[in-house]
Amino acid sequence: MLVDSPPEQRAEPAPAPPTHRAARAVGLLLAAVLLVLIALASVAVGAKALSPDQVWHGLFHGTGTYGDVVVDERLARTVLGLLAGAALGLAGAVLQALTRNPLADPGLLGINAGASAAVVTAITYCGVTSLTGYVWFAFLGAAAVGALVWFLGGSRGATPVRLALAGTAISAALYGYLQAVMILDDAALAKMRFWTVGSLASAGYSTIVQVLPFLAAGMVLALALARPLNAVAMGDDTARALGAHLGCTRALAMLAATVLCGAATAACGPIVFVGLMVPHVVRSFTGPDLRWILPYATVLSPVLLLGADVVGRVVARPSELQVGIVTAVIGGPVFILLVRRRRTAQL
Q1: Phi-psi map region of 159: left, alpha, beta (phi>0 left; psi -120 to 50 alpha)
Q2: What are the φ and ψ backbone dihedral angles of 62, each rounded to 5 degrees?
Q3: What is the mean pLDDT of each run of 10 residues along the chain (347 residues)?
Q4: The pTM of the whole model exceeds 0.90
Q5: Most buried among 70, 108, 189, 261, by the most CB within 10 A?
């Protein structure tokens, strides 16, 4: 007679064989090496061409024109890109597990749009000019839109299609609001252009210092939720059988995503598709275990963001394309491909 194993023995995905765990560990190390190389490229390559000697002089001597370009501009935007990329990738992976929707990300669910709309409102109508002031508006907007999408998507009965439709509709409405504000207020156009596409160009060390505590807290919380989210991703009934605290896990996951998206959007503006693409790529070779997905997303998401930023600086010299435009150009076809692959798999 077959007897089911006790629930507590199945509270997470079955352990991978030692060879698989070793391969994942090696892959994570290689991803970290790739991140270091992309970060170095972000410091060395820009809209203004500099030789390796000039970059070296500016980085380690920090004086004169080279120091201004390399240390004050490129190094600051590289550090901010590392933080924002990790935040968006983690938020996307958490939301995909939370909603059991592989097409979920902060942009598609409207969280980035909510944070952007709140920040623009604070800047235009409330006279808020400092990052310390409007970061709280970003958190409020992200949380409000996240809750609204969850409600319109059916709350506990939410389906991936409903959530995607609700997030798309709310995002469209909020971006329409942003465009209307720019049309009605010429003075606000220059201020909001940064928020409409997402950019690392305005990065500064003061910005990094102000958002760092929020990003660090959100990352720690998201990584700590790997085990509970493994249970939630299996479905409500299974999660309850495994003893998971659904309400607490969902609340903490939404809090982590809100903090990560709010801080990243406050610093960089809305940048879409990073949280969608990277978890998909990661899941293809790590499997569904969030104990591996989340660390991989933390490392590889900045690779995508900084890589897109470098491309944007190179293709439009002596000007540059904002990183939000580059990620959208890359992410659109990838999103269509993902949808077609899922539809084909379901036939």
Answers
A1: beta
A2: 60, 25
A3: 40 60 89 94 76 64 59 82 94 87 78 86 80 79 86 68 82 87 72 69 80 93 92 76 77 88 85 86 87 94 93 82 86 73 53
A4: no
A5: 261
